[in-house]
Amino acid sequence: xxxxxxxxxxxxxxxxxxxxxxxxxxxxxxxxxxxxxxxxxxxxxxxxxxxxxxxxxxxxxxxxxxxxxxxxxxxxxxxxxxxxxxxxxxxxxxxxxxxxxxxxxxxxxxxxxxxxxxxxxxxxxxxxxxxxxxxxxxxxxxxxxxxxxxxxxxxxxxxxxxxxxxxxxxxxxxxxxxxxxxxxxxxxxxxxxxxxxxxxxxxxxxxxxxxxxxxxxxxxxxxxxxxxxxxxxxxxxxxxxxxxxxxxxxxxxxxxxxxxxxxxxxxxxxxxxxx
Length: 275
Ligand code: PLP
Fold this sequence. Notes:
The protein folds into two domains: 4-107, D-amino Acid Aminotransferase, Chain A, domain 1, CATH 3.30.470; 111-273, D-amino Acid Aminotransferase, subunit A, domain 2 (D-amino Acid Aminotransferase, Chain A, domain 2, Alpha-Beta Barrel). The chain is built from ten helices and 14 strands. By secondary structure, the chain is of the alpha+beta class. Strands 7, 8, 9, 10, 11, 12, 13 and 14 form an eight-stranded mixed β-sheet that branches. The site of pyridoxal-5'-phosphate has 13 residues, from helix 8 and strand 12.
């Protein structure tokens, strides 16, 4: 299976040839990046945590004033129904110009490998941690297709010999990754920053991880934390829908072990995707 494309038409979602363009040249979603999207993992003919993703799509759409067309939710089942049995990456995209589609592609080999762990560097986001919550026009915590800066940060990581990034604020707080939520474990307690307070994306995987932590008896705190605390942590994790719950094996060149909390949560997350 290579690519499946489901397009929302006036008659509902329909499978279309992925080689045929579906976007208009004058769509502001293309011209100005005013589109919203969600990325879901498909495992064994099921998309994971669909409700949480669609709720966040609505939240992003509200922030960008992108109208979500009626019936966009049905794109998920339409695309997944045409997919084979293997893992896949499902992107649901809605542009301000009114095009909505779901694109299903194989999981990149690097993402699969990254589930065993990644190396990361800290990079500044150039803002104090509390600023984006006070300045909603900066669109902190919005999953818009304007991800060029996020991709540039990943290229910077690569240039520094690492695979991923943890953004830090100018006042030294931990924020998130360009495509992931960050958490760490200190003294057996899992810690992650509060998304709304520091203007980061509320991760669906982090949400699942917290309920798994509750079930497994792992203590957790949702609170702000400093990069010094991160560096002194016992475990550092990056979480995202397709990568799952992955250990950070080196941060700014300093090695971290893949610790027990990350391993337990990671296994429980994979199991939750295959009920
Ligand atoms: N933070 C950002 C900026 C992201 O782009 C993503 C996912 O792509 C996440 C966090 C993790 O979110 P989720 O776990 O819902 O995939």
